[in-house]
Task: structure prediction
Amino acid sequence: TGLSVIGPQLAGKRLELLKEAFPHLTSVAAILNPQGVSSMAAETDETKVAADHLGIRFQALQARNDAEIPVAFRAATDGRVDGLVIIFSPLFTTSRRQIVELTATTRLPTISGDREFSAAGGADGVRAKCPRLMAACGQLCRQDPQRGQARGFAG
Result:
């Protein structure tokens, strides 16, 4: 019996899904809490590696508290990024409603490893606006590890 965190290893796959769903994606911002644990730093690093591999410009934006989340979203829109990656953090878990609302307001394609993100409404727009992303998610879930590694993302 035990607990395992696989978020960092899936960061590249999440960015790959976002790129498949939105082929025009040339730049992405990752919103992260710099006061987080080491797995958050590893997830950020893996997202950066995936962005480099996919030819996507990467920008890290920090949010240490609820008040800084809208500031990070504003920096993303000011920086004219094409998409957002929410790096897992307990702060973002408790603020997911705010993040979903900001995602809807900014209309930036956003992906998160937090499965509750979609329950809070984060995937509703994706389901309606981007059936390709939903199909890509299903395809990725069915892939065997060998195929995922062949695409450049160790799983």
